[in-house]
Specification:
This protein has 259 residues and is α/β, with parallel strands linked by helices. It is built from 9 helices and 12 strands. The protein has one domain: P-loop containing nucleotide triphosphate hydrolases (Rossmann fold). A hairpin with a 2-residue loop joins strand 9 and strand 10. It is found in: Cell membrane.
């Protein structure tokens, strides 16, 4: 198997089961997969479990390697994780934070680390921020720095939790286009997105989580249906194509409140 495989994964917080016996058919490299679903559906929880940042039952495999059994430095080289936001109060400058993320997977010569970190910042269009303190950045700038930290080690698997939430429209497009390029370079890319319009345009595959399991899984045109939106999100909606052929979602009204 080449790619990411999630088999019989269950996650609980105390007595509350968030994810139950979830199996996700193999996620290959070269595609952007979006995890969608209402609040508290378990999207971020599942993403953190894949990154081995939270306890879980079941197996999570990357290219036939059990991620839970890999040594920390090896897993750090294979998996890049972008959280919803960077921790606040850091005294590091941007360049130092990228170098620190690079060295988390092992020793890298100083000159090589500097060049590699700057190359990633330039790739994301934020090279001018290299010497800025992290705690003086805007929310959108911090998210782009977080993405730079996630990709600087050239990971095989890239996991992103709400990567567009603090970005303006132009930077959303820049980031999502970059995710498509990263996938095309041979990575497995999985992102949590609330914005279904963005998911419709940029995802190759959408997995909708609902009530602890998978409600729908497939390409956007298969998953984004009025029936799914009614059952999962509790809204009456139309799914149509715009003049360019892209899917659009038009919300008409709320149905019964979603629990």
């Amino acid at each position: 198997m080449s790619g990411l495989s999630i088999r019989d994964v269950s996650i609980r917080y105390g007595k509350r089961v968030v994810i139950r016996d979830l199996t996700l058919p193999d996620l290959p490299a070269g595609q952007v997969t979006v995890l969608a679903g209402p609040n508290a559906a378990g999207k971020s929880t599942l993403l953190r479990a894949v990154a081995q940042l939270g306890p879980h039952a079941g197996r999570i495999m990357l290219d036939d390697a059990d991620l839970a059994r890999l040594p920390g430095p090896q897993r750090a080289r294979l998996v890049g994780f972008m959280p919803q936001s960077l921790p606040s109060g850091s005294s590091l400058i941007v360049l130092e934070s990228i170098i620190a993320a690079l060295r988390a997977a092992g020793e890298t010569p100083a000159a090589q680390a500097d060049a590699q970190a700057m190359a990633v910042l330039d790739r994301l269009g934020i090279g001018a921020l290299a010497l800025n303190p992290l705690d003086q950045l805007s929310g959108g700038q911090r998210q782009l720095v977080s993405l730079a930290q996630a990709i600087v080690r050239n990971p095989r698997l890239l996991l992103l939790d709400e990567p567009t939430s603090a970005l303006d429209l132009a930077r959303q497009v820049r980031l999502l286009a970059e995710l498509r390029r990263l996938a095309a370079e041979g990575r497995v890319v999985v992102a949590v997105l609330h914005d279904l319009a963005l998911a419709a345009q940029w995802a190759d595959r959408i997995v909708v989580l609902h009530q602890g399991g998978i409600h729908s899984d497939g390409p956007p045109e298969k998953v984004l249906t009025p029936a799914m939106l009614a059952e999962v999100y509790g809204v009456e909606a139309r799914v149509e194509r715009c003049s360019r052929g892209n899917l659009t979602i038009l919300i008409d009204r709320e149905l019964a409140p979603v629990p």
